[in-house]
Specification:
InterPro entries: Aldolase_TIM, DAHP1/KDSA, KDO8P_synthase. GO terms for molecular function: 3-deoxy-8-phosphooctulonate synthase activity. Its EC number is 2.5.1.55. The chain is an alpha/beta fold. It has one domain: Aldolase class I (TIM Barrel), CATH 3.20.20.70. The chain has 8 helices and 13 strands. Helix 1 links the parallel strand 1 and strand 2. Helix 4 crosses helix 5 and helix 7 packs parallel to helix 8. The chain is globular.
Length: 272
């Protein structure tokens, strides 16, 4: 896809990777704006194309009492307000076919969660909005099998597609990233590596997903080194008290340092 088709995306002439970054879920306007402003300041300084991320609803939860959101329209309006005030594109994930048209009125990129990427009706509904569609590779799928998900979007006359690797299940409580999958999926579409979800540790006895945020830098550096087009990172100024996925999020205070290192690696990689 041509990233220029994403409205308001900046710094495309910098030859940098792009980043989808933000909190796991929109918990409220104040927190979302606080994170967005910091991310935009940093990515503008480093000339990294940014798409601000925030889930308007969390439908895939381990327990019925887990946080699911502040209200669909309320959260989507916050994303729209961030886009308008900061002139930045936004992305959110959708879970049902009926979500597609609703979310498309507020955001620039529709994301299909990994567990749902084989759901044809959902993928088609997203594609038919004409928005850019980010297809997250199922934890149970090979990189090569993503060509079929991509083809579903293409068959809807929508060429604005990216695919995202978020790790592959390895045992009951862990995932691995197979970096051979990056060039494989680049044969089909612009390819993103989801750093933080690749470090999740699901299926914990408590019903709350764990994670390895200490390995975020390791996985991100490797992704940039093998030439991934973009990276996906969930970040929060207080991960310990985040209402969703706090165990694997990057602390916002560490975002700039990580981006500086990744930009340096990217500049080295493109020389060869």
């Amino acid at each position: 896809m041509n990233l220029q088709n994403i409205p308001n995306i900046k710094h495309l002439d910098s030859n940098n990777f792009f980043v989808l970054a933000g909190p796991c879920a929109i918990e409220g306007e104040e927190m979302a704006f606080k994170i967005a402003e910091r991310l935009i300041t940093i990515t503008d300084r480093l000339q990294i194309p940014l798409v601000f991320k925030g889930s308007f609803k969390k439908a895939n939860r381990s327990r019925i009492d887990s946080f699911t959101g502040i209200g669909d329209e309320k959260a989507l309006k916050i994303l729209k307000k961030i886009s308008k005030e900061f002139n930045v594109p936004t992305v959110t994930d959708i879970h049902e076919s009926t979500d597609a048209e609703m979310a498309a009125a507020y955001v620039d990129v529709l994301q299909i969660p990994a567990f749902l990427v084989r759901q044809t009706d959902l993928v088609v509904a997203a594609a038919k909005t004409g928005k850019t569609v980010n297809l997250k590779k199922g934890q149970f799928m090979s990189p090569e099998s993503m060509k079929h998900a991509v083809q579903k979007v293409l068959d809807c006359n929508n060429e604005n597609i990216m695919v995202t690797d978020r790790g592959t299940m390895f045992g009951y409580q862990d995932m691995i990233v197979d970096y051979r999958g990056i060039p494989a999926m680049q044969n089909y579409a612009t390819t993103v590596l989801d750093i933080t979800h690749s470090l999740q540790q699901p299926n914990q006895a408590s019903g709350v997903t764990g994670g390895r945020p200490d390995l975020i830098e390791t996985v991100a550096k490797a992704g940039i080194a093998v030439g991934v087009d973009g990276i996906f990172i969930e970040t929060h100024f207080d991960p310990a008290n985040a209402k969703s996925d706090g165990a694997n999020m990057l602390h916002l205070d560490h975002f700039e340092s990580l981006m500086q290192k990744l930009v340096a690696i990217r500049q080295t990689v493109i020389k060869f």
